[in-house]
């Protein structure tokens, strides 16, 4: 693999301890690492044992505070390539020069759960990208959902307090299905649009590789002439955006709580690199007030049918981290890390984030020098008069650490805009100091209804079931009733179904008269590919070896990942058996194919379980001509292929799910 500039920079920090002599952190060779220094064989340990004290002290301090939100994360390295120059809109060099390959580091995460929580919970997913550009680091810190719960950052602590485990019993972990979250929702109705996304399939993605990303906020592009445009950022996965089903997500949390990180790690190790196209929605400043929503409101989308997404480049994640702690845990993102050509807007949620991130890193990473950690260092030089502090790595030479000065010829010197110096966009500001928000931020339901109108029948069913599950967990009858009455402002029929299921009075609202829909919001309209889909092939060790080999070969040629499952480990001919029925589970596969059966009763029982589980989760199921008996009762159902014809099965896998079984 060709190394990029960030890889080369990190090389000096990588250490392989194999075949090396043990030393202390000061480089002193260690003669004994099993026994502490004692006063006699059975005497007390001596304080002068510097090796023991260093080893134990380091161990005592190995854990840094986990993130308050986005604690459970996984990351990978990669690179970004530009399709066409965007110099008409921005002077950011990495978005103007198509010959540049920009190193990137991307961290995916859940928001609510602790570091030890499961990965397939219903939650928002973080999608944070650090671009190591030649002009400095640019961080696009977003989510897999394009809107957020609140409009002003001052309410962020309240939101997190409400959605986190309730403080009196620390329950439930990594879940919004409890009283305080829904109490927050009904009393802060600006969250109504976001909660529709949270109850949708978007909140239980199939994979990080099959998940959209969004910058959420409206930012600014500024070109060389100083002309600005509003911009929103999108990441579009080349595999399409696809999700789990709720029952499946819950079972995976038990079977493999590391499901998403394992999927990304294994895919990169196999060479199935995760790929995303960067899209931008661009809006001229004179069009700021032409819509029925405020373009600076983080609880609103810009519908793609109104403001098209222009695809401008591709990001490829092609290398796993060498050390999760040193890279994934110590990486410090900040929405305020921008480069010339990208600037902020007055979105009040974004404005608050510009303070919060630095403040967070100071406590998490032990002081002001977190930018010097290898994963956070820019690939371009950095020079300033900042000095000292916890964890300082730079050894600054010379007596001068202030500006202006004569002893160092007034260096480091500032740069003009022509020399690449960052200059903030000179937006005209008028107004009085006030604690309030614009009336244009006060519509909380129209886009929530737009989202509902845009869903397929299957997606609407899943949203309905999610509401019934989540609100059904709420103990307060008052809060449950308030939820129903709030949802009635989005869709009264949806509210009636929820009310009937959770034991509240019918809604009092009149519903919404919004009829507009945005087809781009439905995952059913996303691209569908078989590539890297994981197929579990059940095979008897006494089955037809040639038929199995042909099946596996055919599936692999269709870009599917195949893993063989049997009753015992070993091999079938030259094909190794990857799993037994006990070491894996049907929920961990995108499809099940039965290549051959055994007369053993336990084998049949387990095979039936795998097929039935896949059938209940609307996945593709196939069987060879010798194993079609396993499909009895399911013949003719969508996505069930009752012959060894690989093409039909591959087509069924490509469809992702066969929702008409649900109807």
From TrEMBL:
Alphabetical list of SUPFAM superfamilies matching this protein: Heme-dependent catalase-like
Keywords, in A-Z order: Coiled coil, Heme, Hydrogen peroxide, Iron, Metal-binding, Oxidoreductase, Peroxidase
Cofactor annotation: heme
Coiled coil: 538-565
Manganese in keyword set: no
Keyword Signal recorded: no
Catalytic activity: 2 H2O2 = O2 + 2 H2O
InterPro entries: Catalase, Catalase_AS, Catalase_clade2, Catalase_clade2_helical, Catalase_core, Catalase_haem_BS, Catalase_immune_responsive, Catalase_large_C
The protein's enzyme class: oxidoreductase
Domain Catalase core: 23-411
EC number from the UniProt entry: 1.11.1.6
Gene Ontology molecular function, alphabetical: catalase activity
Function as written in the Swiss-Prot or TrEMBL entry: Decomposes hydrogen peroxide into water and oxygen; serves to protect cells from the toxic effects of hydrogen peroxide.
UniProt family annotation: Belongs to the catalase family. HPII subfamily.
Listed name of the protein: Catalase
Organism for this UniProt entry: Paenisporosarcina macmurdoensis
Lineage: Bacteria, Bacillati, Bacillota, Bacilli, Bacillales
């Amino acid at each position: 693999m060709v190394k990029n500039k960030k890889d080369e920079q990190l090389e000096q920090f990588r250490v392989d301890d194999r075949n090396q002599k043990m030393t202390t952190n000061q480089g002193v060779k260690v003669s004994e690492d099993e026994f502490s220094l004692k006063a006699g064989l059975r005497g007390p340990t001596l304080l002068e044992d510097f090796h023991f004290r260093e080893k134990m002290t380091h161990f005592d301090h190995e854990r840094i505070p986990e993130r308050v939100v986005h604690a459970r994360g996984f990351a990978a390295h990669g690179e970004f390539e530009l399709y066409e120059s965007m110099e008409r809109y921005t002077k950011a060099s990495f978005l103007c020069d198509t010959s540049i390959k920009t190193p990137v580091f991307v961290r995916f995460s859940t928001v609510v759960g602790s570091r030890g929580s499961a990965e397939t919970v219903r939650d928002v997913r973080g999608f944070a990208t650090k671009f190591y550009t030649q002009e400095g680091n640019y961080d696009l810190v977003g989510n897999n959902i394009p809107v957020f719960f609140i409009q002003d950052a001052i309410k962020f602590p309240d939101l997190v307090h409400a959605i986190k485990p309730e403080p009196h019993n620390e329950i439930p972990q990594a879940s919004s299905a409890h009283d305080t979250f829904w109490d927050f929702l009904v009393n802060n109705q600006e969250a109504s649009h976001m909660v529709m996304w949270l109850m949708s399939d978007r909140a239980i993605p199939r994979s990080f590789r099959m998940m959209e990303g969004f910058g959420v906020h409206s930012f600014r592009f500024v070109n060389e002439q100083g002309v600005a445009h509003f911009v929103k950022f999108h990441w579009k996965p080349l595999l399409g955006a696809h999700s789990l089903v709720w029952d499946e997500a819950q079972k995976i949390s038990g079977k493999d709580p590391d499901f998403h990180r394992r999927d990304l790690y294994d895919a990169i190790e196999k060479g199935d690199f995760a790929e995303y196209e960067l899209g931008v929605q661009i809006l001229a400043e004179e069009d700021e007030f032409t819509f029925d929503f405020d373009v600076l409101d983080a609880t609103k989308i810009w519908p793609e049918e109104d403001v098209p997404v222009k695809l401008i480049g591709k990001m490829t994640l092609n290398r796993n981290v060498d050390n999760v702690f040193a890279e994934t845990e110590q990486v410090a993102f900040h929405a305020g890390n921008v480069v010339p050509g990208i600037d902020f807007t007055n979105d009040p949620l974004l404005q608050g984030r510009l303070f919060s991130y630095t403040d967070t890193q100071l406590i998490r990473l032990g002081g002001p020098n977190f930018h010097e950690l290898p994963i956070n260092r820019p690939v371009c030089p950095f020079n300033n008069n900042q000095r000292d502090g916890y964890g300082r790595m730079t050894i600054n030479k010379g007596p001068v650490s202030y500006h202006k000065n004569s002893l160092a010829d007034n260096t480091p010197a500032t740069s003009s805009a022509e020399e690449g110096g960052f200059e903030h966009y000179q937006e005209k500001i008028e107004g009085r100091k006030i604690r309030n928000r614009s009336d244009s931020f006060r519509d909380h339901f129209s886009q929530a209804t737009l989202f509902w109108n845009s869903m397929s029948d299957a997606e609407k069913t899943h949203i309905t079931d999610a509401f019934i599950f989540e609100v059904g967990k709420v103990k307060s009858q008052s809060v449950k009733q308030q939820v129903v009455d709030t949802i009635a402002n989005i869709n009264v029929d949806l509210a009636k179904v929820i009310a009937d299921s959770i034991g509240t009075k019918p809604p009092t609202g009149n519903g919404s008269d919004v009829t507009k829909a945005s087809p781009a919001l439905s995952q059913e309209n996303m691209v569908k590919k078989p590539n890297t889909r994981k197929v579990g092939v059940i095979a008897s060790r006494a089955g037809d070896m040639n038929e199995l080999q042909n099946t596996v070969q055919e599936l692999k040629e269709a870009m599917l990942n195949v893993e063989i499952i049997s009753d015992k480990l070993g091999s079938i001919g030259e094909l190794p058996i990857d799993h037994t029925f006990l070491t894996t589970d049907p929920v961990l596969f995108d499809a099940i194919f039965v290549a051959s059966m055994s007369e053993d009763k336990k084998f049949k029982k387990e095979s039936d379980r795998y097929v039935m589980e896949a059938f209940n989760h609307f996945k593709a199921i196939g069987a060879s001509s010798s194993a079609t008996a396993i499909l009895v009762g399911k013949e003719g159902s969508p996505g069930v292929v009752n012959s060894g014809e690989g093409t039909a099965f591959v087509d069924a896998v490509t469809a992702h799910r066969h929702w008409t079984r649900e109807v």
